[in-house]
Amino acid sequence: SVSPACHAMGTGMMLSSWATSTIEEVAEAAPTGLHWLQLYVYKDREVTKSLVKRAERAGYKGIFVTVDTPFLGRRIDDVRNKFQLPPHLSGLAVYVAEAIDASVNWEDIKWLRGLTSLPIVAKGILRADDAKQAVKIGLNGILVSNHGARQLDGVPATIDVLPEIVEAVEGKVEVFLDGGVRKGTDVLKALALGAKAVFIGRPLIWGLVYQGEEGAKEVLQMLKEEFRLAMALTGCQRVEEIGRTLIR
């Protein structure tokens, strides 16, 4: 449902490598849509390689490799609320521990860079030195992300660290942001601080729960309308006019 909704609203979709729909199924849901693959580096490098090659064949336009979650965090609110995953998903933490390579370093990311000609973006960067290293080894972008602030208690807000990441890359690669984007004004703030674009997660889930594909479209439409209004009220006729002078 998300893939055709995003396509209908003129935006792209990033598919999790843990999704319950396959790379191919999501591509087929919107054959002319814009798709990216979010990727974890698996202990079994052949699994990682297979996912990348499948994304290439399915027409995906880029790989977002997650670099900030070697383990799943302990979510205190879930513990307090006695939240439990349904039985068919209850083994996720064990799966992550067994499948995902927690020892991934920059050499592994360089190996990934050599697998494909697709653009590769480092997802989960919150420090300037890491951003510089990502640029140095030939990655094509940075996604400033804290994994929805769901893994590490006290992790910085992405909007707070965005300016130093933008400064660190010196315009050599594009910088994106996710985390906490709920309104059109949030989009405006991120772009004003140097982000090329933003990604959202939870709002789309809310839309899906509300009314499936149509609900996802409605969420995206609301964001677009709020963003246009925010531009108008700050005197910006074009996206290119959005800049740091709007932020105090």
Commentary on this structure:
There is one protein chain. The mean pLDDT is 92. The chain is an alpha/beta fold and 248 residues long. It has helices at residues 2-8, 23-29, 45-57, 76-80, 92-99, 106-113, 128-136, 158-169, 184-192, 202-233, and strands at 13-16, 35-39, 63-66, 120-125, 141-144, 174-178, 197-199. It has a 7-stranded parallel sheet with strand order 1-2-3-4-5-6-7. Helix content is 44%, strand content 12%. It is built from 10 helices and 7 strands. The chain has a single domain (2-246), classed as TIM Barrel (Alpha-Beta Barrel). One of its GO terms (molecular function) is FMN binding. It catalyses: 2-hydroxyoctanoate + O2 = 2-oxooctanoate + H2O2; a (2S)-2-hydroxycarboxylate + O2 = a 2-oxocarboxylate + H2O2. This is Hydroxyacid oxidase 1.
Q: What is Rg?
A: 18 Å
The level 1 CATH classification is: Alpha Beta
**Helix segment tally:** 10
Give the N-to-C terminal Cα separation.
39 Å
| Fraction of helical residues | 40-55%
Q: What characterizes the major β-sheet?
A: 7 strands, parallel
User: Which structural class matches the secondary elements?
Assistant: alpha/beta
- Give the strand content: 5-15%
Q: Can you tell me the CATH topology?
A: TIM Barrel
Bulk shape: globular
Mean model confidence by pLDDT: 92
Strand adjacency order, main sheet:
1-2-3-4-5-6-7
CATH architecture: Alpha-Beta Barrel
Low-confidence stretches: none
